[in-house]
TrEMBL record:
<dbReference type="InterPro" id="IPR050791">
    <property type="entry name" value="Aldo-Keto_reductase"/>
</dbReference>
<keyword id="KW-0560">Oxidoreductase</keyword>
<dbReference type="Pfam" id="PF00248">
    <property type="entry name" value="Aldo_ket_red"/>
</dbReference>
<protein>
    <submittedName>
        <fullName>Oxidoreductase</fullName>
        <ecNumber>1.1.1.-</ecNumber>
    </submittedName>
</protein>
<feature type="domain" description="NADP-dependent oxidoreductase">
    <location>
        <begin position="22"/>
        <end position="314"/>
    </location>
</feature>
<dbReference type="InterPro" id="IPR023210">
    <property type="entry name" value="NADP_OxRdtase_dom"/>
</dbReference>
<dbReference type="InterPro" id="IPR036812">
    <property type="entry name" value="NAD(P)_OxRdtase_dom_sf"/>
</dbReference>
<dbReference type="GO" id="GO:0016491">
    <property type="term" value="F:oxidoreductase activity"/>
</dbReference>
<dbReference type="GO" id="GO:0005737">
    <property type="term" value="C:cytoplasm"/>
</dbReference>
C-alpha cells in the first residue's frame, strides 16, 4: 500500500497525503514528550514509513533541542534525496544549546538557525522551513524576507509558518510565497477553522498541515485515566488533561470509538480520515512501526458525507475540550 501524493500549496511542493511527526522520538531535556524513547525503534519507524511511501518527516530545532534533527540525520543517511524534510526555527536557542523560551524572528537569527539545522540534519538543503512561532516584536515581513533569501541561496526549498493568524499569513505571503501553514488541528482543536485561517489559506493557495491530529493522543483511545500518562509526560501539565476536562473528553472519545467500530476501523484512523477528507495534511506523531502502519492505513479510508456529519455532531465546532498548552505557551500563539 503506497500513499497518495498531493500538492502542499501552489508553489510546487508534492508530499504524501499523511506525514510523520517526529517530535516524540526524542526527549526534551530531562522530560520525554510522549513517554519513553527508543532510538532504534524510532529509526526503524522512519525507514518503514519510507517503504510505505511516507517520506515526509516533520521536526524542529527545538525538539531536544537539536536531538530530533540529529536522530533524523542518522535515519536518512545515504537516502537524503528520498525524503522530504520539514524543520522549524524561532524558539531562541543560545550558544550553549539552551532554550531561552523567547521567540526570535530577526534576520540574524534566521541565518544562524538555518546553518545549525543544516549541520544537525547533515544536509545542504531543507525542503520546507517553518517559522515555528511569530516573533511579535519583529515584523513578519523581516522574518519571511530573510527566509526568502535562503530560498534564493538554495538552502531551503519552500517557506512555512506555524500557528499564525490570517492577517499574518497575508502579510508574509505578500513578501514571499508561503507553501504551508502548520497549526494544531483535530476533532478536539479547530481554532484555525473558527478564526477563518483555513479559509484564508484556501484563498491564497497555501497548504495546511495539522499537527497533533489525534488531540495529543486523546483520540487514540489509549488514554483512559491521567495515570495512563508517564510521570514525566508533558501532557500532565496542560488543561486538556486536567480534571475539569478529562472525563468529558473521555466521553467524546467513547462516542467517536462507537462510530469507528461501525466502520471496523480505530478511532485514530477515523480522526485522521476526517482531516484528510478536508484536504488537510495530518502529521501524526509516532515512534513505533505498529502505530505508523495503522496511521498510514487511515489515508485510504473514504468517509461519506453522512460519516462526516455524524462525527462533527459528536464534537461540534466550538466544543471546549481544554487548552492544548499552558498559559505561557497559549500566549505565544498568533490568534
Amino acid at each position: 500500500m503506497k500513499l497518495n501524493q498531493v500538492k502542499l500549496g501552489n508553489q510546487g511542493l508534492i508530499v504524501p497525503n499523511i506525514g510523520l511527526g517526529c517530535m516524540g522520538m526524542t526527549g526534551f531535556g530531562d522530560a520525554d514528550m510522549y513517554g519513553k524513547t527508543d532510538e532504534k525503534e524510532a529509526i526503524a519507524t522512519i525507514h518503514r514509513s519510507l517503504e510505505l511511501g511516507g517520506n515526509f518527516l516533520d521536526t524542529a530545532d527545538l525538539y531536544g533541542p537539536f536531538k530530533n534533527e540529529q536522530l533524523i540525520a542518522k535515519a536518512i543517511e545515504g537516502n537524503r534525496n528520498k525524503y522530504i524534510i520539514a524543520t522549524k526555527f524561532g524558539w531562541e536557542i543560545d550558544d550553549n544549546d539552551q532554550v531561552t523560551w523567547k521567540i526570535n524572528g530577526t534576520k540574524e537569527y534566521v541565518k544562524k538557525s538555518i546553518e545549525r539545522s543544516l549541520k544537525n540534519l547533515k544536509t545542504d538543503y531543507i525542503d520546507l522551513y517553518y517559522m515555528h512561532r511569530l516573533d511579535k516584536n519583529v515584523p513578519v515581513e523581516e522574518t519571511v524576507g530573510a527566509m526568502g533569501d535562503l530560498v534564493k541561496e538554495g538552502k531551503i526549498g519552500y517557506i512555512g509558518l506555524s500557528e499564525v493568524s490570517s492577517e499574518t499569513v497575508k502579510k508574509a505571503h505578500a513578501v514571499h510565497p508561503i507553501s504551508a501553514v502548520q497549526s494544531e488541528f483535530s476533532l478536539f482543536e479547530r481554532t484555525v477553522e473558527e478564526k477563518g485561517v483555513i479559509k484564508t489559506l484556501n484563498e491564497l493557495g497555501i497548504g495546511f498541515v495539522a499537527y497533533s491530529p489525534l488531540g495529543r493522543g486523546f483520540l487514540s483511545g489509549q488514554i483512559r485515566s491521567i495515570d495512563d500518562l508517564p510521570e514525566n509526560d508533558f501532557r500532565r501539565g496542560i488543561p486538556r488533561f486536567q480534571e475539569q476536562y478529562f472525563h468529558k473528553n473521555i466521553e467524546l472519545v467513547e462516542a467517536i470509538e462507537n462510530l469507528a467500530q461501525e466502520k471496523n476501523i480505530t478511532s485514530s484512523q477515523l480522526a485522521l480520515a476526517w482531516i484528510i477528507s478536508k484536504g488537510i495534511l495530518p502529521i501524526p506523531g509516532t515512534k513505533r512501526r505498529k502505530y505508523l502502519e495503522k496511521n498510514i492505513e487511515a489515508s485510504k479510508i473514504v468517509l461519506s458525507e453522512s460519516d462526516i456529519q455524524k462525527l462533527e455532531s459528536i464534537v461540534p465546532l466550538g466544543t471546549d475540550t481544554g487548552a492544548p498548552y499552558d498559559e505561557f505557551s497559549m500566549g505565544l500563539l498568533d490568534y
